C-alpha cells in the first residue's frame, strides 16, 4: 500500500509519467520481496488444500506433507545452496521430536520443550559441524551418517528416558486448543494442518530470503567452488557451518511438530532410512528450490497413499518413478519444469 | 433416444436395487506386511485374507459379506496413524485389527477413542492395555506373562537363583525389564544379568560369567531372532548343565533348525500351536489350533506361525462380537467384544472384562521342552 502511494505524492510531470510508472513497478516488486512472495504462495496452497479436503484423512496427509516440506527445506539450504550432503538429518529431526516428548514429563510446557529441542539440535550441529566442515570432500556425509546412527542408538537403548525401541507417548498440547483460544472449533487433524502449513510457509520464506542475502550468496559461491569463494574473502568453513546449523534447526522444528501431531514417536524417526528419505525428497523435487522441497515432500508422502490400490506393486512403482525422474530430469522436477517454461516463453 | 434413456434408467434402477444386497461389513487392518517387522505382518495378513475368504464362502456374518481393507504400514508408526485415519474416515470400517508392532499400535490408539471404533492390536507390549483404553484390545500375551510362566516353572522345580542373558533388541530389552520387575513377586532372585547385541556371533564370555556366578541354578534368555540360537549353541559348547530357558520369541520350528542338537533339553513358554497333536482331547484349544493349521497349510502350503495365530484370534473374537451384537454399530461391537467370555482361540482362552482388554491368563502359555528336535509339553 505504502509503495503504491509513492508516485502520487512525488507529483511527477507528465513527460516523465512512464518513467514514474516503471519506478513504481520496481518499488512494488521490492515491497513484495521474494520471501514474502514465497510465504504468500505457500499460504495460498495451504488454504487451497483446506478448501478441497473432504475429510480428516486428507488433512492428516496434508499435515505430513507440510512437516516433510519443512524438514526438506533444511536439506535444500544445505544441499541446494551449499552442495553438502547430510545422511544424518533424521538425528536432528529426532532430537526435536524427543525433546518435545520428554521434557513435558518434567513439567516443561510443550512449546518451550520444542524450542529447547530445536536449540539443542542447532548446538549439536554447531559443535559437530565446525571441525568436520573445515575439511572438504565427503567427510560431512560420513560424519553425519555416524552422528545419525549414534542418536538413533541412544534413543533405542536409553529406555528409561525414551521408552526404548517401542517408542513413547507425547503428552502435551493439542493444536486444537490454540484455535479454540480465538474462538475457532477445529478437529485436531485440521488444526495440525494449519499449524504445519503455516510453519512450513514461514520456513520457506526464511530460506528464500536467505538465498538472496549476502550470506546466502556466499553459500552459493561455495557451491560452485570452494577455492573461488575463499579467494573472494568468504570464510568457507564458517559459512558451511552456518548452513549446517540452519538446516539442523529446520529438521528439529519439523520433528517437534511431528511428535505433537502424532502423539507418539519411535526411534525410527531418527533412523537412517528417514535421513535418506529426506535427501531423496529434496533431490526428487529439485534441491535448489524450496518449491522443490514441497514437490518432493508431496510426491513421496502422498503417492504411497494413492498407490495402496496397487499394494503389491507399490514399491516397484515408487522406485520406477524415482529412477525415471532421475534419468530424465537430473536436477529434479521443479527446476526441470521451470526450464521448460522459460524455453517455451522465448 | 427414448430407448437409450429407458435403458439407462433401467440399468440405474438395477444398480440401485442391487446395492442393498451387497451390504458389507467392512473390517480394516493396518499391518507391517513389508519392512523390518514383515515376519509379524506377513503371516498376519495372510491369515486375515484366508479367514475373510472362508467366512464369506460360509455366508458371512449374520448373512452379510465381510470386506477386509488391508494396508501395509511397514511398522512405521507415522504411516500406521495415517492408515488408521484413512480406514476410519474414508473406508468407514466398523472395527480395525492391527498394528503388528507396538509403535504402530500406540500411534494409532488415540484415534479409536476419538472416533469410537473398536481396535484389536496384534502387538506384545503391556502399555497397549495398561492402562486400559476403552476401545483398544489385544490378542498376544505380554512378555511379563512369559517371565511369570518361566519363573513359575523354575520355582516348581525347587530353584530360585536365576541368571539372565538378554538381547538388546526391542523384544529382549522389554522382556528383560519385565522379568526383573516380576522376579521378586515370583519368588525368584536374579543373580546374574548379562546382555548381547542382536548380531553378535559369540556369547561365550557372557555365558562364562553367568556360569561362574555363585549359587546360580537356572538361566533364562529373553531374545529374538538369531541371538538365542547362538546363545543355545554356546551354552552346549561350554557344557553348562544348568536348566536353560528360552522365551516365546523363538517358539518356532525354525529355532530348532538353527540351534540344532544344542537345543535339546531346554524349555520355553509357547502357544499350543506348536503341539497340535499332543493337546488333550478335552482341551478347549485343540479344535481351533487344528482348524487353523489345516486351513493355513491348505491356503499357503506352509506352517502357520505364532504371529499369524494372533490375527486368527483377533478376527474370530471380532466376528464373534459382531454376531452377538447383532449390529454393525462400532460401539455395540465394542461392548460385545468386552463381554467376550471363554472364547477358545489358538493363543489362549480369552475372557475380556472392563479392566482386562487382553483377556488371557497364564494357562495360555504351555511350557514345552525340546526333545530329539521336537516339542514336548511339560506336565504341570
From TrEMBL, chain A:
GO terms for molecular function: branched-chain amino acid transmembrane transporter activity. The chain crosses the membrane at residues 38-59, 65-83, 90-106, 112-129, 136-155, 191-211, 243-266, 278-303, 315-338. InterPro entries: ABC_transp_permease, LivM-like. It is a multi-pass membrane protein. CDD domains: TM_PBP1_LivM_like (cd06581). The gene is livH_3. It comes from Limimaricola soesokkakensis. This is Amino acid/amide ABC transporter membrane protein 2 (HAAT family). It holds the Pfam family BPD_transp_2. GO terms for cellular component: plasma membrane. The keyword Transmembrane helix applies. The keyword Cell membrane applies.
TrEMBL record, chain B:
Residues 24-371 form the Leucine-binding protein domain. The keyword Cytoplasm does not apply. The gene is braC_1. This is Amino acid/amide ABC transporter substrate-binding protein (HAAT family). CDD domains: PBP1_ABC_RPA1789-like. GO terms for biological process: amino acid transport. Keywords: Amino-acid transport, Signal, Transport. Residues 1-23 form the signal peptide. The lineage of its organism: Bacteria, Pseudomonadati, Pseudomonadota, Alphaproteobacteria, Rhodobacterales. The keyword Signal applies. Belongs to the leucine-binding protein family.
